[in-house]
From TrEMBL:
Entry keywords, A to Z: Isomerase, Membrane, Rotamase, Transmembrane, Transmembrane helix
Gene Ontology MF term list: peptidyl-prolyl cis-trans isomerase activity
Protein species of origin: Candidatus Berkelbacteria bacterium Licking1014_2
Pfam families xref list: Rotamase_3 (PF13616), SurA_N_3 (PF13624)
Highest classification ranks of the organism: Bacteria, Candidatus Berkelbacteria
Record-given protein name: Foldase protein PrsA
Domain (PpiC): residue spans on this chain: 209-300
InterPro entries: PPIase_dom_sf (IPR046357), PPIase_PpiC (IPR000297), PrsA_foldase (IPR050245), Trigger_fact/SurA_dom_sf (IPR027304)
Amino acid sequence: MRKHFAKIKKVVLNLKFGFPKHWLKFGFSLRFSGFRSWPIWPSDWTGWLRFGILGLIIIYFLVGVGMVWQLRRAKNNFCQESIVADFYPLPAAYVAGEVIWRHNFCQLVKQNDYFYEVTKQAPPGREQLYQEISDLLIEDKILSSQARHYNLEVGWKDVEDTVDKMAEENGGADVLEKMLDETYNTTLHQFKKIVRVQLQREKLEKEIVIQVKARHILIKDEARTKDILQRLQKGDDFNNLAKEFSEDINSRDKNGDLGWFGKGQMVKEFEQAAFATPVGKIYDQLVKTEYGYHIIIVDEKKGQVDKSFNEWLKELKDKTRVWRVL
């Protein structure tokens, strides 16, 4: 028996398994005479403790493998999947080397299911819902990476201030917590995480993509608009003329101020003129749109990416390596 065992050992050690030979030699150090000859067999209580912990880890791993195998057999059984995801760190997707955990995915699915049930709205199909939630989590992971890259991460103080304001507008923190529990089956802590993701998206949209801060005078009659443009070119005050002649009731009393806007937020003709105008200058022609004739002055510009936020995000998603495990 020993001779046969020695021959088998010699053959196996000569095979090209891609493992270091000392690993195989370690395996052949076992003897048929009993387990006590195993080199790592515990000799004191600390050894037994390490051995017990190792055993628990192995059991945990094997049970997890069994659960995953069971999930593969019982596809679309979200109840089972949710239970397993609560106990085992299973991935839902990998985004540029970072993990989206299945637990987070299942949590959002449950919140959506609860919302549709409470509000009596017709939910989307399961495949559509899974796709939308996984897309959302992937976008959030990509934007989080970009926030770190540009040093634009949202702090928890900003989140707390936003949630406090929302609580104040809805009758207090207790009322807000009750509403979150009854409508979404979520806690205030979970809600703060969602708020942080939304604030992060808004901050990137405001700071990364190029934006323009502009004022305008809108008049439907072309001849009158030309006359006002000539007066401005001679040195008349833009604010006074905007208050007196602009037909845009939303901006007229604010000196024609439109605030900040990025690409894709205004009609095409207005956008092209505003982004082509240098800071502090009036666009030298009338801009005709479906609303009438505009005179545009650009006050400020900011940002680094010369495209709309959605275009920038789509470009990032196309370039990012994503592996969906779902």
